[in-house]
Amino acid sequence: MPRHLPDINPQRCTGCGRCISACGPHVLVLERQGWDKVSALTDAAACTGCHHCAWHCPFGAITMRPAQPLAAKE
């Protein structure tokens, strides 16, 4: 599990796809929200936490947040 995961603000995301192009492991997709499309993380476990999506977003729609550790099974 990566240390950080992308947190996408749908109000700032324009659906330009630059983050998707920058994503090496291909874990981001465009999803429809009403009439708009916004970026969404599809596979958190496959995300490397490289920050490329956040760096390539020209609208500041992506911030990296600390990944939540998996809950221990009892």
Describe, in plain words, how this protein is organized in 3D.
The chain is α+β, with helices and mostly antiparallel strands. The chain is built from 2 helices and 4 strands; from the N terminus they run βαββαβ. It has helices spanning 18-22, 52-56, and strands at residues 4-8, 28-33, 36-41, 62-66. The strands form 2 sheets. The protein has a two-stranded antiparallel sheet with strand order 1-4. A two-stranded antiparallel sheet has the order 2-3. A hairpin with a 2-residue loop joins β2 (28-33) and β3. The radius of gyration is 13 Å and the shape is globular. The two termini are 20 Å apart.
Give me a quick take on this structure.
The protein is 14% helix and 30% strand. By secondary structure, it is an alpha+beta fold. The strands form 2 sheets. The chain has a two-stranded antiparallel sheet. Strands 2-3 form a two-stranded antiparallel sheet.
Question: Notable features of this structure?
Answer:
globular, two-stranded antiparallel ribbon, two-stranded antiparallel sheet, 74 residues, 4 strands, alpha+beta
Helix percentage: 10-25%
What's the alpha carbon Rg, rounded to whole Å? 13 Å
Beta-strand share of residues: 25-35%
Strand order of the largest sheet: 1-4
Overall mean pLDDT = 91
Write down the overall geometry.
globular
Order of helices and strands: EHEEHE
Strand-helix topology:
Elements lengths: L3 E5 L9 H5 L5 E6 L2 E6 L10 H5 L5 E5 L8
